[in-house]
Amino acid sequence: MRILVIDDEPQIRRALKMGLERNDYQVGLAGSGEEGLDKMATEPFDLVVLDLAMPGMDGFDVCRQIRSWSQIPILVLSVRDSEEDKIRALDCGADDYLTKPFGVGELLARTRAIIRRAKSSEASSSSPIFNEGNLQVDFDKRIVTVAGDTVHLTPKEYDLLQMMINNANRVLTHRQLLTKVWGLEYAEDHHSLRVHVANLRNKIESDPTRPNLIQTETRIGYRFVSTAS
Amino acid sequence: MEQFWKLCIGIASVVLVTALILLVRLDFVLANVSMVYLLVVFLVGLYVGRSAAIVSSVLSFIAIDWFFVEPKYTLSVHNTSEWLALCTFLLVSTITGHLTSRVKSTAAEAKQRQTETETLAKASWAVSSQLTTEEALTEVLKQLKRIADVEAAAVVTFDKFGNVVLRAGIGAEDHNRNKHLVSEIKKQLDSARLDPASKTLWTPVASGGEQAGAVYIKLSEATNETPEQKRLIDTLVNHAVVILQREELMKEQSHVQALKEVDKLKTALLAMISHDFRSPLTGIKAAVSALLQEPNYKQNDTADARLLLQGIEDEADRINRMVGNVLNLSRLEADAWKPNLESSSLAELIGSALASFSADDNRRITVRLPRDMAEVMVDQVQIEQVIKNLVDNALKYSDKSSLIEITVSTLDDELMISVLDRGIGLTEEDLPLIFERFYRNQSLKESSTPGAGIGLAICRSLVEAHHGQISARSRNGGGAIFEIRLPVKLKQPLLTTVDEA
User: Fold this and answer.
1) Which of A215, B165, B239, B446 lies most in the core, judged by the most C-beta atoms within 10 Å?
2) Where exactly are the structural domains of chain B?
3) What is the average per-residue pLDDT within A65-85?
4) Are A80 and B324 a contacting pair at CB < 8 A?
């Protein structure tokens, strides 16, 4: 498993390299966006860890460039209080974000989740049944059960749930969910999305006031949390 | 006295002319004689004054009748036409005298007006131009000297010790006179009252309720000012007052400006520190957490080193929290919160806030929300922060087994969020101060419960940025209640949707 770290701070590059290598990842380093893109063109990688705030070509540009020719998972690093940046990065095609400062443990957890997702999406056709706690979704039959009882979902709720499960443990922005499930013209209809998510939670969460499955990422979007591999 | 001499000049000129005419025998044509007298009246009117001109015209009339009209040396007139000529002369000469003197006084008045206008224009220019206070005041005093007989004049201000500072003065050209002037002014200041007989004018200048300075004028004893002069002096004094007040205002303004600048700098500095601290922190945290990574760690390091590394990581986290607090504090100071109002689901915000607490903590928390609550316009991040801070406080100051309740209710255009606990509660002295920065209950300061007294202050400024109110009170049966009231326009209700299939 090869990971490319693109960050302008040498200290952070060095620390991440060491932390990741101790966990048997192979690590490539780049000190700028341009260098990162060069590395990607010449070496194969499975994941990119990308700092958003860099002099010269910033993380957003790098993210867009990569997305123009590759579906490689991208994890962006950003500072606190910058939801706008996070939304922008996710809409640019980043898979997830980490807020600085972070521990290598958090980075590894996110990395594993992203890689697991990448693998399962390659093999998604082979497992038509999804299990997470009390929740079971049979994608072939479009049947959702909670603790054995069948739950009736509206088509939109079902589409929403399916998209979230397919992107489990990944933040999906309001925009991404709205454009995929409803269509481009509904991209800004956050209200509808909230209504549907609330209804979905009422149907599948054990305590809808404290959701475990569909977590809110305030101002950014939602994350479906899954421990299933 | 002056008037008397003017009349004498009028009489004397007629006498002189009569003597001259008799001497050079010009009396053969009466018309010529009349012309000469007319000329005299005209000249007297022009140079001496109206009354002198009238006296000389009457006198000329008598002189012509006496010396040159037949029968001579009597005041009687034989010929009717001569009588008519004489009367005409009297009329014409009187009118001439009157008119010439009026022309003269009009001219004098015009000149006076011109001086006045010039004086005022110069004084106004001194006020409005970019001159220094001293230059402007000197210009005004110079104008004052031009229009009135000023013995001494000065504009003074008082420094912060109450000392007299001479800003501009007339009659203070050398050191000794300067000293004399200042001592005069001090005397004036001490007596605090003007002698009505003395010709001294004292005009205090107030600024911000305090006496900032004064204009002092001493007119010469010998002269009497005309009403116009008095008016002009008043106007010039007012100009000087305006100049001083302008200076005071500018001082105040620059003080306010300086405060603003300092505030801006402080905020920028704090924001910069908080931001720039995060980069090395990220480095430290990443490095330490990398070292701590299982499983390779155990192979080449001792348990002691592991403890030390854990210490470094914990401390880095602590500095990071402090940096967060400093950042919030810098915003608190600068009123920098600008809520980004968005239609929001309160249920979702509370759920998200509670997600940051552990499962154990969450078991103690109950949430009561109205059914089908409408969406509200709030800044999601900020209101979530407020709820988090309040719940964090409730958890921190209450027993591990006690319950914490969050209730939400809506009135017409107001949203109320309450957080209720069964904790240590609030004392009387807490209540007015609890939302102040750095406030901590005395007994808590000595306890081991961590806190810096920032959380509630942040809550208050966030709620106030939403034009809302936050309050705290003791709860019946022990514990505390924190209430947030937000004025909100309720959006479309969050109804269960009809299936759109």
Assistant:
1) B239
2) 2-110, 130-247, 342-493
3) 86
4) yes
